[in-house]
Amino acid sequence: MLYAYATTGTALVPLAPQADLSAAIWVDLYRPLGSQATAVAALDYEIPSLADMEEIELSNRLYMNRGTAYMTAVLPGQLPEGGSAAMPVTFILNARRLVTVRHHAPRPFETFPRRADRGSTGCDTPERVFLGLVEEIVGRLADLSEGVGKVLDRIAGRVLSRDATSETEFLQDALVTIGQQAELLGHVRMGLLSLDRILVYHAAVTPRDQAPRGLAKGIQRDIQALEVHADFLTSRIGMTIDATMGMIGLQQNERVRILSVVTALFLPPTLIASIYGMNFRVIPGLEWSMGMPMALGMMAASVAGVLALLRWKNWI
């Protein structure tokens, strides 16, 4: 799909599907068809394929070509078939317009056109549209980080409660949820790192008289603060996993303790029954009429004795 936007100076206005793309200040290519990529390439841009965008070499993700900067970041977003993933997004920027190429759907690409007039960057130049879009992406990454923190608050509070050792199903689900949040936080960290890289590269290749450097510096400071917050969340994830595994271990220890008590209670009766069940010709009391009641009494007494010993030792 192809989305094109023109600027009114303070807002972005979507262009009609058949409008002339040369009037656009921002062209957004989402899983573009061949004809759509060709139409944008006719404006003197090289549209990278998904394979090109996935190359991790620096020369494939940050480079200049005929005065146009090509910058690729890895951002979290929704896949067309459902689910989420971190995939590359390429920003192609020059003095005429911004072109973005993506094969998944990061939410800021949907929200930024509607809120561009409320951003701090404005949208009267391609540079400002680019920085406004990056600012929107950083805001989205901040929201995702905050969401991870709220999930960890909820899980940690319940795991560390007094009743957690009796909630087997919850503890198992908690491990899955924590793992999902760790994966999401990994996508956020990758997005922050790649955005920081492209902002540094953008500042290096953009003439000083054309770049709103104060805005870029402010976004970079936000990214650095979010990276510190991501480090904090990473440590919290580790702590929550350790606490959950500890509670699961306590559950298992409690079950083993119960089994050990039952084994200890029935060990002496088993010994008595084994002695009187031996197949020797001569066994004292074999013909005694009170042998059976005596053996049963010894078994009951041994169970009571072991039970009293365990209670005296405070083991049950």
From TrEMBL:
InterPro entries: CorA_cytoplasmic_dom (IPR045861), CorA_MIT (IPR050829), CorA_TM1_TM2 (IPR045863), MgTranspt_CorA/ZnTranspt_ZntB (IPR002523). The keyword Ion transport applies. Keywords: Cell membrane, Ion transport, Magnesium, Membrane, Transmembrane, Transmembrane helix, Transport. It catalyses: Mg(2+)(in) = Mg(2+)(out). It is found in: Cell membrane. It is a multi-pass membrane protein. The keyword tRNA-binding does not apply. Gene3D superfamilies: Magnesium transport protein CorA, transmembrane region. It comes from the Bacteria. The chain crosses the membrane at residues 256-278, 290-310. GO terms for molecular function: cobalt ion transmembrane transporter activity; magnesium ion transmembrane transporter activity; nickel cation transmembrane transporter activity. Pfam families: CorA. One of its GO terms (cellular component) is plasma membrane. Belongs to the CorA metal ion transporter (MIT) (TC 1.A.35) family. Mediates influx of magnesium ions. Alternates between open and closed states. Activated by low cytoplasmic Mg(2+) levels. Inactive when cytoplasmic Mg(2+) levels are high. PANTHER family: MAGNESIUM TRANSPORT PROTEIN CORA. This is Magnesium transporter. It comes from Paracoccus yeei.
